[in-house]
Fold this sequence. Notes:
The chain has helices at 2-14, 22-30, 40-58, 64-110, 118-127, 133-141, 147-157, 161-174, 179-182, 186-250. The two termini are 58 Å apart. Among the domains are: 2-58; 89-194. The chain is 80% helix and 0% strand. The longest helix has 65 residues, at 186-250. The protein has 251 residues and is mainly alpha-helical.
Amino acid sequence: MELTQQDNIVLDKFRGKIKTTQEQIKKEVENLKYYKEAEETEIDKATERIYDKLQIVNSEYMQWFELLLAFVFATIGYMAPIWILMFQVKMRQLEMEDEVMQFQTIILMLMRIERVNVEIILEWLERYSNIFKPPITRCVNNYEAGAWEALENMKEDVTYTPMIRIIESLQAAVEKIPIKDAFDELDSERDYYQEKRKESNERLIKRKGMIGKAIGFSPMVCMFVGYLIIPLVFIGLTSMSNSFSSMSTLK
């Protein structure tokens, strides 16, 4: 460590000076206290070592792939929060679809029971809700003050279209329309969303399968390219350059 510190003193003085010679480094080494009583061979050895280090330091520069990597990582770091938000939006949308399908199943079971009203349906929806729990809870708490107004406020808080349809059907049931009639289209809507979700799941599974195949074959492709194609191309270019050089010498 002490030897390295002495080398760094000289390197700091000549760093960036490309035309530095070994004689200049040797004079600087001789002026160091560490080499005051050193022999000539030791000073020459230190001079050569420091000169080699200085050549490495002065020849260092920004290469094109380092700049490219910097831009790539900067782009990834800049776009990562947006990509994370997009992923969260997609996952939240899938969760909302699952929750609405769960609500539809609950309503289909409750609408067949006699003396079931909108308040009871809201209480059951609140028990099994996750994403829509806050607006449903507020609606249940405000239901006694006015059923229509409470449902209207919940509809303003919700932006998901299938959930808004359920709220509108509940509003229709509040106005003395039988619950069975208010949700007469629920069976067909539920079947539609089930088929839609089934199709999206199949596409997702197919995409994952393609990604898995690509990841599985990538080691073999890298090995094939790295150990066969690149060496063959290099050997071919080398032999071709040697042939051209030999032909030029014959001329």
